[in-house]
Amino acid sequence: MHLLKLSLACATLAAAGLYADGARAESYDAPINIATLACPAGSSGFNNARFVIFPFFGGTPANWRLTIWCNAGGSGRRGHFEPGSGGVGSVWPYAGGAFGVGWPASPGYGNQYQLLDIDGDGDLDVFQLSETAANTWSVFYSRTQ
Predict the structure, then answer these.
(1) Could you tell me which of 58, 57, 80 has the C-alpha nearest to residue 69?
(2) Residues 31-70: b if buried by 16+ CB within 10 A, e if exposed
């Protein structure tokens, strides 16, 4: 009888251990503000800005590019940012942009989050768009631990 109870207890613990790794929550570093774009009046509020991060091969060397696109009464502003010498985990310098580019942004742009393995370590890092002041939009980067 004691052997049966011990066997059942061991089997239960082993089964719990098999599923424990799949049940753990992801853990992220504190968010870093990597880009901020001041937009024209009228671009405050949810759904008035979008962003996208993508590989950019137009420069030498090839790099990542972040574009923030905000609405201002339908006229729109777009700003581009690229990682500088500090890498992807520091503030990305402004790389140009345009006013009067129209709205809405193209469908590839997100309005809140983008998951991307930008540091090449095999996990998805989080990028989040937030309004940090009236008519000012910032993208924050959180690296998966």
Answers:
(1) 80
(2) beebbbbebeeebbeeebbbbbbeeeeeeeeebebbbbbb
Give backbone dihedrals phi and psi of 8, rounded to 5 degrees, phi first.
-65, -40
User: Containing H/E element for 49?
Assistant: strand 49-56
Residue type, 61: P
* Measured distance CA(122)–CA(15) in Å, rounded: 27
Q: Residue 63 and residue 103: Cα distance in Å, rounded?
A: 26
78-96 pLDDT tens trace: 999 999 988 888 999 999 9
pTM (two decimals): 0.77
Element (H, E) at 17: helix 2-23
